[in-house]
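In the laboratory, one determines a bound structure by crystallizing the protein with its ligand and collecting diffraction data. In a computational setting the workflow is compressed into a single prediction: the sequence and the ligand go in, and a structural description comes out. We illustrate the idea with fe (ii) ion.
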Amino acid sequence: MIETRVINTAAGPIGVEVFGMTLDITRDDDVRRQLTETWVDKGLIAFRGVDGPEIQIALSNIFGPCVAHPGRPMDESKANPELVNIRYERTGGDVYEVDGVELGAWLPWHSDLIYVDRINHGGVLRPIKLPREGGATGFIDKIKLYETLDSELRARIEDKWIYYKWDLDIAHQRFAKRSGAKVIQWSENRREMQSRVEQYPVVAHPAVFTQPETGRKVLNVSPWFALGIDGMEGEGGHALLEAVAQHCVDERYAYFHTYQPDDMVLWDNWRMLHCGAGIPADESRWMARTTIQGDYALGRLADVTASIDDRIRVNV
Ligand SMILES: [Fe+2]
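The predicted complex, in structure-token form:
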């Protein structure tokens, strides 16, 4: 009924491609079970040969109900309030310079919503308008990152908690910061979101957790938004988290999905880091995404006083 093919990186398999999905098949219990098991097992599914909002929402709902993204509330008056448009245009868009090249649709490696205490379970991305080149979404499997982390670093990070705070300004990124990247232009929306940065408290997430269905450990570190290690606010903590974060952005483990017009990509946000690889700044890229509900129930508001937060800031 459906066919699958393993996706490979230079460092081994990551996710699967699925062929043959139709709207009817999304209602088939055996297929739903197979896809749910694959999602847990692989964390990433690229659906080929599917298009349109209806099947995007139906596919998303196999894995859970869709929810609003805190930064982009659902508009219930719209035909498909589950869908959020992610639209890049040079005029009024977020433009970065990365290694001397101006890019739109570029984002550092991160986990969605790691800066709040409840992390959504995943999302489905669908292209609406693709650029002539570029525009890939990168994925790195955090189970693979745990398995391949240097054993001494693993022992030191294993029981730690990481502080995070929402801050969209890449100039403020503290760990595994992409050298040679800077903001050229911010969109109105991004400026408005950044103006609310102080409304978001510091939160903490465990550096490692166990995937309940399989017992595999996940290196739960998002380089973007990380502030530091709970209880290790000094230089030693910074050096440890920097070393772990550098491992997390090692692109030998990455898969970059280059979209075809009839693709959709599902990822497990608890399991996969992702990034926007960017497009030439004069190109356009429109995507529609869903946000799949769920919470791994391990995040917490950090009991961090202003003085401790300030100390983390000062030390970096
Ligand atoms: Fe994201």
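Residues 67 and 293 are 6 Å apart (CA to CA). Keep in mind that any predicted model is a hypothesis to be tested, not a measurement.
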